[in-house]
Amino acid sequence: MSIETKLFFSGVFVFVPVGIIYGLWSRWEAVGTTGLFLTGGLAAMVGGYLWLTARRIDPRPEDDPQAHISEAAGDQGFFSPWSWWPLPLALSAFVIFFGVAVAWWVAYIGAAMAALSLVGFAFEHYRGRFAH
Questions:
Q1: Do the Cβ atoms of 9 and 43 come closer than 8 Å?
Q2: Over 70: is that where the pLDDT of 130 sits?
């Protein structure tokens, strides 16, 4: 079992008892108690997902305490170092949050910007210089 799985499953054993203690102490105040139980549930969901994923893939060098650094050498994924699409995505997220705080019609404009930016970000490697 990977360290991430153990970390998230241990969150369940922290947040649920703290939620019970908080509920008893605050006479079951709705927001805080619910938030703590939902945090424990979220930790259980993420831990369960990581556990199921760890069962399907080969053991990683990070999971072996006797592994050498050279065992993790090589490509770790595909990254786009020249991509400008994260900037419009961040700007559209800002516009959405600003719209929620100020006026809802601004949030709708931000949602449209986010949709366009997300499509551009997802399909940037289908055309141009980096197409594959």
A1: yes
A2: no
